[in-house]
């Protein structure tokens, strides 16, 4: 790979990406463009601009964008249409943010004439894979620079030395090692590493930043109603909201009731296991809500097909293949199923839990006439069941007859 | 189908199966054998014997058996090895009990020379299918009688009339319609019908019989440890227990903490949707525990394969195909995966929730050496990630190149 | 079910459906509408009109339609996009024709004010299921009459008697039992029953009607080129043709070279096994051609996903669920994959076989630059493979380390 | 990776692996152990011994083994139980040989105290992945050396120079570039590269080495009978044979009739497409035979489950994960299905094709009593079909009613 001339860096404004910024300038002598996105991580973005300018970035090379609506509309919502969880439980809060960041990195590179992009993910994790696969899928010519895999700044001491030598300001609390590593966006906050590395040990209380402790959460359940249109949540308690507003509101409710904590050991795509603490307050509510509305609006053929493909869809997203034919094919299948996933659910929020306790819809397939224990006025002929069972049993009888014959 | 001469009836001792008993005697003039099983439904069985004798059943034709250990060991535990849930959430508490009852019905029929079996399931539900498929799979010659699909006792009034005419004692509270219908065993209690038929309406408090209300559950979390051996829970807080003892103990804990309530609309195999309230206290804890121990003992190849087949496995059980080649094939696959699912998890129980908060095992695949943020002493070479990504990206690059060329 | 007043009958003009026609008139006293479709079965349709008139059908109640183009365009082609085979080998020639016939039956019923439709499929086969599921899916109020399941004309003698009593003309060769039963359309001819009922016995030569004997087929291979656009065959040897023209032309070629014979024992949806002789000359060529063009235009992610879902898609079609959400969802996935399945294949036809021997496309993903044994000018860095392997091996190493530790 | 001290080399005795042998000695100064296996590639092995001795290998370090029986019994046969084909058509002849070679490499390393193994696969192909994943899965400490990824002998000229400088004898026909590359074992011969690199161009006749040209093959069909026991072919024309004898015999028959040629473009695991010519004469016959016996001995539940998992199983083998939990899990499922796959098929071999034309078995599930067009003496009640259809249709009716209501 020839040396990059102009690099778009995914820049948070924090110490680590500031070091990367400077390292790119010094190591490659290249022009740096910074890209800082608001995906709902809960940090001010303007300090990133000041810091970038201080590090010598030209104003026209500083891109700061609020991507929250696009994030929820085009990434989070499509994923939730599939009731997606990785390895049974994880709501993919980190995974789903990477494709959008990568897409903007590539677009900004193309707009600014940059030949490379750079990210701050390490060589041990999934994020490097997600960033790079997405970038290459969108621009096969782009160079991707992953400083953590390249440089020799392999200890905290060396990083701090580099920062000091290069006049990068160091916040007081960044001098030492953080007790664990954090990633956040509108969907979730993840914490991992250091004090969390022993999966036998309970995560200490101070790890949780995004959800109140269920023990101290309100002592009475709260009830809310979420309305869906074609698989996406569009209104809460009857009030229409935008995608990002919906997730923001559900996050507030989830935080208050201590909903969405997950202590998890997962299999990384790069082959090792890692332990993470995930907090996904709004997403956890959204998953239960979506399942609830599907219960009455999706028939079994559609539902079972979706369910059987969800693990694969989750794996594709987790592994970083959002921009791949197989993800797009599965999305087409999933989206097709959502045409009638329209209606409202009532949810109970209480001390760490969310339960669907009611659901209704003009699109409902639930037929009280058929299911009733009362007289059904001929909606269903119980005699049909005999034939249904006989033909379903036929192959089992033939098997049993064969097996008995051979004994 | 020629008339049965001797019928083994799945007999609870309650009013409905007593009416069936009498109806079989009068309708077919056949000898009746009663089979009453303790699957942990929480009812005394001896009254069933007295009632059977009173209804003219010969003592040698009365079979009363405690099947709790067999139920958990050979049905519940194998199912939980797959983390099985139907349609995302239901733990299959009713479905998993039917094969065992059917197996004993057929075995007793063969032992007593009966040519038929009978059950008390209605023509609208799944249970008729489960009973009959299982019976036919075990004995292709057996006749199965489903009185609810045959007789004309189509209203509560007619049933009560029949009972009175035939000197069947009627408990005071059985004269009127029950407000909903209940099924129970060691794994769960289900409630459905009548007051629960509108899926928009919240289930009234009095429906819940098996779990305390989370609101009034203890205000402090309780922590327990569950130990697994080859996928099955074998010890709690360090104390070895039998399969049924384990589930009984987890049920007590789950009840106390209000764990395992589910308000659910599901797709029946017979084609309609129905709404049920399920309470699965111990099972809900067991599922979380099993997932927790798999997190560190199962590698991603095994785990993802299992996960992708679980929905199908659940559907097979739900639909009543326990004794089918496909269930046995999947079981072979699942059991193969459990050879190292051995170790202990710590669980937090609190007001309706159960969370795995720690897990450890001699069989653990978690490698702190590999995942650590600290120096890993060469366990993992971050440079490898570059090649890994490049080759995973190759087809995406070729796709992007093709697609750009054609624009 | 109340008695039908007006029935649309799927009418071939042959003896059996003529008997049904008369039986409907006499049994139900209802008005009959006949629907006769040309799906390429190779029979004249006008005699059906004359016969219908002779049997008292009003001219405005006689519908005769050429559906060949619609059949191939909307049913056969979508199915071939998935390389669909049932149970490894069967090209679903009967299954795929039923939905279209059903669709027109329902549409004609709605246009003529009929409240019922009727078909001539027996109670043992798959076709009754396919017809009826399709009709109910398109019109949930329609009645479907299946005379073979209702009447008492249970032997050839009784049928002939009924025909004679009702002045239905009987062709000389229809008096006796046919030696086997035939179904034909543009995609295939199937033969089953009678002389074919012993699956150990080779099918006699006279069963084959649609393909020449490979032994006497031309002694030299013939080469053709088939061009695809978005997954559908659109030109042969450079000449654009319509969908039905394409299949007709491939049928001629396949017939000449003895291609597409299959002696098969399959599992019917109704639970039994049956043996059929299938001749699918054009379809067999089309399958090989489509696979060939996908080889260079589909990437592995898309191809493997499609392949893994094909068996399910085939089962859905075989079982009669063409008009179901799950088929439509899978179709959306499959169609999404075909956007670049455009290009040309060369095929060799010779004595019962068809082989793809060349393929090329502007949409090709094949990169000689990458795969070459020669110098690849840096297209591919072999060093990347080391990292790729190391990370793919990591979990296997961790497994092996664990397993050795425990020995 | 520290330098290896003693290396077991997969040694064919040919020029390339002789160069590797010498290169290992000179580059690493390490002791070399050679392992030469007979997997049915059709070459004498003793010349490899002489050549190894000539290149300075100690006699006790030369391992030459006939692995043909183990190859077919423990690798080919288990794979064929699943009717395994990769990407619809390829019988995995190369893939399935690699695990066995790797297993012996590791075992010999452990027996001789070697710390490394080496193979002659290039950095662009799948074989490097298969060798290395298998070795690491069997011994996580082993070093694997892949000279083609390391050395600078990047052209034919450099290789020949190296050979000449090191007194490695060069056969006259090995001086120039071979027109294509060949791999062979008892299951297949593959040819790829050079003259085959353009997938639009027909493969020249001289590429085919393992099968006679169908055009000149015998003009009359030949019929054979193959008998299976629990899924494996055990006798031909009534004569019991060992696994390797079976495949050898089928290879002779397939060769004679020109069976098993495949011109194929496949997706390599390393991300690119490649074109290969495969000749799998015996395997192609075996696949058709196995499908034929499964047709009557496997029920639909078992068959459809197997079919749906086969693509994944094939991918796992192709990608080199034979020694992985997921392959072993799938094998357990597949093997479970084969318990009754016992019986005999008759096959027709003719000019490039093989067709199953008859099959019979004591384990047959085919019931002429059920399927017959004649009177079935009550084996099957056609009325049952009505109920079967009604309940299968119920959800479709509910869907149609919903969709009509919303129009």
Task: Give your account of this protein's structure.
Chains A, B, C, D: Its EC number is 6.3.4.5. Chains A, B, C, D: It is an enzyme of class 6 (ligase). Chains A, B, C, D: ATP binds at residues 10-18, 37, 120. 4 copies of one chain form a homotetramer. Chain A is an alpha/beta fold. Chain A has a domain at 6-77 and 95-177: 3-Layer(aba) Sandwich (Rossmann fold), CATH 3.40.50. Helices cover 42% and strands 19% of the residues of chain A. The first copy, chain A, has 13 helices and 14 strands. The first copy, chain A, has a 5-stranded parallel β-sheet with strand order 3-2-1-4-5, with helices on both faces. In chain A, helix 5 (127-138) links the parallel strand 4 (116-118) and strand 5. In chain A, helix 3 (68-80) crosses helix 8, helix 4 (98-112) packs across helix 5 and helix 10 runs antiparallel to helix 11 (325-337). The longest helix of chain A has 25 residues, at 382-406. Chain A is elongated. The model of chain A has no long low-confidence stretch (mean pLDDT 96). At the C-D interface, helix 5, strand 11, strand 12, helix 9 and helix 10 of C face helix 5, strand 11, strand 12, helix 9 and helix 10 of D.
Task: Give a brief rundown of this model.
The first copy, chain A, is α/β, with parallel strands linked by helices. Chain A contains 13 helices and 14 strands.
